[in-house]
# Entry
Amino acid sequence: MKTLLALLLFITAPSAIIRAESTGNPATSPAWITGPDTAFQRATELRRPLFINFTGSDWCIWCHRVRDEIFVQKHFLDYATANLVLLEVDSPRQTKLPPDLEKQHAALKEKYSVTSYPTLLLLDADGKELGRLGYMQGGAKTFVRELKRLTAAAAPAPSGIAPAAAPH
# Structure
């Protein structure tokens, strides 16, 4: 039995290591922040939209799909790193969060009425909701296109250009 277990471990361990290296984990990626106060402060300082990923990292299958198909893909990471502040608000079932972080996450879930996972929010630098998304087929390119659409719709007109006058 021990030999069989050792053989099974020997066969599966390399593929697990390769998968971990190729997909990564958004929470440990340098681009993702887990502390809401830090994320909101950074969004304000940089005048960038805040993208919040409400996830159940250790139980939510659709959250895993969003992570694997979008969040760890180069296209998303390149866009997000240059244009957004990323915040992960996790609600794990197996892992216990530090009490202060758990309270902050609970307050955000209540404030933004998050009842399902994944819930993906795009906020402007002042905390106003620009859009609410969930799992989206099409991968990182489709997702980034939607983020660009949401941020463009909320962007003010360039200075020196007056808004169009209302018809009389």
In short: Confidence is low (pLDDT under 50) at residues 4-24, 162-168. The chain has one domain: 24-152. Helices lie at 2-23, 36-46, 61-71, 74-83, 99-111, 139-154. Residues 2-23 form the longest helix (22 residues).
